[in-house]
Amino acid sequence: MDSDYVSQLNRILDGNIEPGQVSQTLPYPNEINGSSTSVVSVSASTHSLGTSSSRSSSAASSQLPRQGGVGDSSAVTFSSSTNGLIGGEKTHVTAGGAATYGATGQAPITEDAAPSKLADCKTGQTPPHPVPEFLFQLTKMLTDDNLEYIEWKKATIFVHDPPGLEKNLLPRYFRHSNYSSFVRLQRQMNYFGFRKIAGKGKMAPCSYVNEHAKEDISSLLYIKRKKSGVSSTAARLISQQNRLANSIPGAKPAVMSVPGVMMQQAPVSNFGNISQFALSGSSIPISHQMPGVYQPTLQEQIILAQLQQAHTSAASAAGLGLPQYVQCAPMMANLNQGLLTADQGQVLYPGSLPENKTNSLATTLSIQQQQQQQQEQQVSVPQSMVRNSDPNVFDLGVVSSERALLTQQISAFNPAMQVQAANDNLSPQATANYGQVAAGAASALYGSQGLQLGPARSQQQTLEEILRNA
Amino acid sequence: MDSDYVSQLNRILDGNIEPGQVSQTLPYPNEINGSSTSVVSVSASTHSLGTSSSRSSSAASSQLPRQGGVGDSSAVTFSSSTNGLIGGEKTHVTAGGAATYGATGQAPITEDAAPSKLADCKTGQTPPHPVPEFLFQLTKMLTDDNLEYIEWKKATIFVHDPPGLEKNLLPRYFRHSNYSSFVRLQRQMNYFGFRKIAGKGKMAPCSYVNEHAKEDISSLLYIKRKKSGVSSTAARLISQQNRLANSIPGAKPAVMSVPGVMMQQAPVSNFGNISQFALSGSSIPISHQMPGVYQPTLQEQIILAQLQQAHTSAASAAGLGLPQYVQCAPMMANLNQGLLTADQGQVLYPGSLPENKTNSLATTLSIQQQQQQQQEQQVSVPQSMVRNSDPNVFDLGVVSSERALLTQQISAFNPAMQVQAANDNLSPQATANYGQVAAGAASALYGSQGLQLGPARSQQQTLEEILRNA
Amino acid sequence: MDSDYVSQLNRILDGNIEPGQVSQTLPYPNEINGSSTSVVSVSASTHSLGTSSSRSSSAASSQLPRQGGVGDSSAVTFSSSTNGLIGGEKTHVTAGGAATYGATGQAPITEDAAPSKLADCKTGQTPPHPVPEFLFQLTKMLTDDNLEYIEWKKATIFVHDPPGLEKNLLPRYFRHSNYSSFVRLQRQMNYFGFRKIAGKGKMAPCSYVNEHAKEDISSLLYIKRKKSGVSSTAARLISQQNRLANSIPGAKPAVMSVPGVMMQQAPVSNFGNISQFALSGSSIPISHQMPGVYQPTLQEQIILAQLQQAHTSAASAAGLGLPQYVQCAPMMANLNQGLLTADQGQVLYPGSLPENKTNSLATTLSIQQQQQQQQEQQVSVPQSMVRNSDPNVFDLGVVSSERALLTQQISAFNPAMQVQAANDNLSPQATANYGQVAAGAASALYGSQGLQLGPARSQQQTLEEILRNA
DNA sequence: AGCGTTCTAGAATATTCGGGC
DNA sequence: TGCCCGAATATTCTAGAACGC
Question: B183 lies in which domain range?
Answer without folding.
Answer: 133-217
